[in-house]
Amino acid sequence: MNSHTHILIIGGGLAGLTSAIHLAKAQISVTLIERDVYPKHKVCGEYISNEVLSYLDFLGVNVNELNPVEISELNISTQKGKMIKSELPLGGFGISRYALDYYLWNKAKSFGVQMIHDQVIDIKYDHKAFQIITTNNKVLTSDYVIGAYGKRSGLDKNLKRDFSYKKSPWLAVKAHYKANLDTKTVALHNFDGGYCGLSYVENNTVNACYLVNYNSFKKYKNIKEFEKKVLCENPYLKEFFENSEQVFEKPITISQINFDKKKPVENHIFMLGDAAGLIHPLCGNGMAMAIQSSQILCELLVENYSTKIYSFEEIENLYTKQWNSTFSKRLQAGRILQKVLLSNRFQQVAQKIANTVPSIVPEIIKQTHGKPIVCQ
Fold it and tell me: Is residue 305 part of a domain?
């Protein structure tokens, strides 16, 4: 197969699919390549900040059709079970990636996006066009390429991205449960070596997703033993796992999660979502950031499609500048928060401060979240 498209998107997650919808709405030729088939569960916290609602409305995406759960409060517990409670300044909603990604996939198809089930293995650029090669020996060409393929891919090594050569100790585990919790609350419970998020998604189901250092995890035979011996040292997690029913046949996992800095443009490829920069899950804002990164880039591409006012290099510079302006401080705040919450001593100090000055917690939350998106 040899074909040309104006814009080719690699990856059909939140960033890739929202970009495809945005560009297709503007009558731009778009092809999206995704290796997986939907619907499919993904390792994710499955909480989205309300800051992206106006952009989703602009795209014609009505998340209410998926019966999301409104979330307005945050609970954080220390390893020993001391609790910090706060309102979420903007609030958000819980929705599974199983439902949301499938919905967006079908929405993109309805807008005429060419959807290909395949995997990109190489990209070449000759200053005129990109050549994209897939595992099924497809060869496609495009004027622009968007990388929206997630946290880590074999493609990263082909592109010689710095972080791809480093081993990362982080492992994430996720499953859905039937449980009796406060539906309006997203909870973050710390344990030795990591932290676990609990929040409702559609169908009265709780998403439990935790991040752990593999050095802590590998001491145990399996996930169940690790949860019993380590997570359940936190009394809130002990209560949850002992009084809930797992919906999944078995949890799903992802390893080698790397939080190092990344570049939003690499080898002339525009990176979106986790491919551009990964915020620590404790910040609860990765899904919103993926969606907003799509909006930033697509507004530039749509504007230039009709006016031709920017060169390729100018679009790269503008996107990089806007991406850094929007996300760099959030990512830095996430790194600092992770260091605090992974230290038992710092957790205790933070809990005392938060309970003494409750107004400080919403202000900290704002450092990892943005303002409501204004669509142009």
Answer: yes
Q: What is the pLDDT of residue 111?
A: 96
Task: Name the least confident of 39-48, 244-253, 256-265, 330-339.
Answer: 330-339
Structural domain harbouring 114: 2-167+257-367
Fill in the amino acid letter for 83. Answer: M
The widest CA-to-CA distance across the chain, in whole angstroms, is 64
Highest mean pLDDT among 172-181, 282-291, 360-369: 172-181
Query: Is residue 158 situated within a structural domain?
Result: yes
How many domains does one find in the chain?
1
What do you get for the CA distance between the two ends of the chain, in Å? Answer: 37
pTM over 0.90: yes
- What is the full DSSP assignment across 224-286? HHHHHHTGGGSHHHHHHHHS-EE-SSS-EEEEEE--S---SEETTEEE-GGGT----GGG--H
Determine the Cα–Cα distance for residues 224 and 226; give it in Å rounded to an integer.
5
Query: What's the rounded mean pLDDT across residues 285-314?
Result: 94
Q: Is 327 helix (H, G, I), strand (E, B) or coil?
A: helix
The answer to whether residue 312 is domain-embedded is: yes
Instruction: Inform me whether the pLDDT recorded for 174 exceeds 60.
Output: yes
CA–CA dist 25, 107 (Å, integer): 11
CATH code at 137?
3.50.50.60
Angstrom distance (rounded) from CA 285 to CA 76: 15
Helix orientation angle between 14-25 and 286-307, rounded to the nearest 10 degrees: 30
Question: Cβ distance 146 to 7 under 8 Å?
Answer: yes
pLDDT exceeds 60 at position 216: yes
Q: Is there a domain that residue 110 lies in?
A: yes
Give the tokens for residue 291. Answer: 């969606």
b/e per residue 185-197 (b: at least 16 CB within 10 A): bbbbbbbebbbbb
Q: For the chain, how many helices (H) and strands (E)?
A: 11, 17
